[in-house]
Write a structure and sequence with these properties.
This protein is α/β, with parallel strands linked by helices. The protein has 13 helices and 17 strands. It has two domains: 117 residues, Aspartate Aminotransferase, domain 1 (Alpha-Beta Complex), CATH 3.90.1150; 249 residues, Aspartate Aminotransferase, domain 2, CATH 3.40.640.10. It is globular.
Length: 398
């Protein structure tokens, strides 16, 4: 179906940070499948795990335990705890980021009934933020404030309210005793690569504690090493801890998987029958994720992402200085970076692609740069040079 406006090329293979079309033209990939292929394309270890696991066991359903899902859950929880996340307790494995967010929103709705002891409670409200993106299924879409995405599918799920991102005063006013959950991205990706402030996240944590609401961090795009930390919220103070954290995109480097990581008070509330999934946590996806998560969470790997991100940010700021009438701002951490332009940057996507560079846009007139985390310094410099050529051409259209 024509739900996407795709360019007139067909991608047939990939290797590392490059993709190749059916004419065998190479493209330097600064999209990584929208921040998914953190270890690059055709990673040999991922391919080997897929091969070995496919020979052993692909699927059992959740009628039974399987060893890979258990190992993955333990690895994510214990690694998060060792990284300072003492709150982490248990995990629900799903198939995508949207499904992870749907699960988190359902858990928040049950929480409202749980803490009030009333199935007919008014504590059912969900608060989300302007320019946030949480998915396209009905619950996740209701938390995704964008008329373009929402209006064709109205009426949406009731009980959702939206307030400006990084506005402490308005957030404190809208989160009240009828709020059961607050969902926020520590770094907005689709919304234009906007980082949350520490003051904002601390205020959300304190207000959720005051009102008995759950704080959900959507780290589907900013988590799992993308910003140079295991989790995006680790850039902030120890006060900034969630009750639930959702993840997906890079967890299995392109094999579909998502997860909801929860605190003990949430996991203890969830009972058999409260939620489910046929494919979630299947041995194939969980086996690959076990390998990928172990590599992404290595301190030396995270340090390399920070170093490469700092170098790229420096080069992007040099572009900003060179084109002050085109580039307004450079934002982000690690390899989740954004360049805000003076007008809609959609033409730059085509201009960059013609130069052999793949980029993607985001909100706020922003070009988003989310390459594989295995990007080399040479590839980073080459990509920036191609982007500079696209900006030079874009300048002529102003």
């Amino acid at each position: 179906m024509t739900t996407y406006g795709r360019p007139n090329i067909i991608i047939s293979r990939g290797k590392g940070c490059h993709l190749y079309d059916t004419n065998d033209r190479a493209y330097l990939d600064f999209t990584a499948g929208i921040a998914v292929c953190a270890l690059g394309h055709a990673d040999p270890e991922v391919a080997q795990v897929l091969y070995e696991q496919a020979k052993t066991l692909v699927h059992t359903s959740n009628l039974y335990y399987n060893d890979k899902a258990g190992e993955l859950a333990e690895k994510i929880v214990t690694t998060t705890q060792q990284s300072g996340g003492k709150w982490a307790s248990k995990i629900f494995l799903a198939n995508s980021g949207t499904e992870a967010n749907e699960g988190a929103l359902k858990f928040a709705r049950k929480w409202g009934k749980h803490v009030t002891g009333n199935d007919n409670t008014t504590k059912t409200g969900i608060v989300s933020f302007v320019n946030g993106f949480h998915g396209r299924s009905m619950g996740a879409l209701s938390a995704t404030y964008n008329p373009k995405y929402q209006l064709p599918f109205a009426p949406l799920v009731p009980g959702f309210k939206t307030t400006p991102y990084n506005d402490v005063e308005q957030a404190l006013n809208i989160i009240n005793d009828d709020t059961c959950g607050v969902i926020v991205e520590p770094f907005q990706g689709e919304g234009g690569v906007h980082p949350a402030t520490t003051e904002f996240l601390e205020a959300l944590r304190k207000r959720c504690d005051e009102t008995g609401a759950l704080l959900i961090f959507d780290e589907i795009q900013c988590g799992l090493g993308r910003t140079g930390k295991l989790w995006g919220h680790e850039h902030h103070s120890d006060i900034c801890k969630p009750d639930l954290l959702t993840m997906a995109k890079p967890l299995a480097n392109g094999v579909p998987i998502g997860a909801v990581l929860t605190s003990a008070k949430v996991s203890e509330m969830i009972k058999p029958g409260d939620h489910g999934t046929t494919f979630g946590g299947n041995p194939l996806a969980a086996g690959v994720a076990l390998n990928v998560f172990g590599r992404l969470s290595e301190p030396s790997f995270l340090k390399s992402v920070t170093e490469k991100g700092n170098a790229m940010k420096e080069d992007l700021n040099a572009l900003k200085d060179a084109y002050p009438d085109v580039v307004k701002a450079v934002r982000g951490e690690g390899l989740l970076l954004g360049i805000e332009l003076v007008k809609d940057p959609s033409p730059i996507v085509k201009m960059a692609r013609e130069r052999g560079l793949l980029v993607v846009t985001a909100g706020s007139n922003t070009v988003r740069i989310v390459p594989p985390l295995t990007l080399t310094k040479e590839e980073a410099r080459e990509g920036i040079a191609r982007l500079a050529g696209a900006i030079e051409e874009f300048k002529t259209t102003l």
